[in-house]
């Protein structure tokens, strides 16, 4: 069930730092029903420029993916299906260090 849930979540990078979760939800609800939004913040409480949006249906994910490479508030969005664990930094992992 967890893998199925993950496939309903998209990663969105390149967000303007002024973007709020409410604004993101408002804009991406047109893709489909948004079930959750997570926007990590730095130590000062300011958005890091990326976030994760979970949709109720795969159709919502597919619609959101169409925004990849589009302009959003002056920045270019990077939209992709949120990857599973171990997907980050392939090829430059701990096994490559010190060998």
Characterise this structure.
It is a single chain. The longest helix is centred in the first third of the chain and has 8 residues, at 21-28. A hairpin with a 2-residue loop joins strand 4 and strand 5 (75-76). The protein is built from 3 helices and 6 strands. The model is unreliable at 86-99 (pLDDT under 50). 21% of the residues lie in helices and 24% in strands. It starts with a helix and ends in an 18-residue tail after the last strand. It has 99 residues and is of the alpha+beta class.
What Rg do the Cα atoms give? 15 Å
Our measurement of the CA-to-CA distance between the termini, rounded to an integer number of angstroms, reads 38 Å
Number of strands: 6
Averaged pLDDT: 84
Contiguous helical run count: 3
Beta-strand content: 15-25%
Helix-residue proportion = 10-25%
Please provide the ordered H/E string of secondary-structure elements.
HEHEEHEEE
Major sheet attributes: 4 strands, antiparallel
Order of strands across the main sheet:
2-3-1-6
pLDDT below 50 for ≥5 consecutive residues: which ranges?
Answer: 86-99
> Which structural class fits the helix and strand makeup?
alpha+beta
Shape: globular
Question: What's the short story on this structure?
Answer:
The protein is of the alpha+beta class.
Key attributes of the depicted protein:
single chain, 99 residues, alpha+beta, 4-stranded antiparallel β-sheet, two-stranded antiparallel sheet, 6 strands, globular
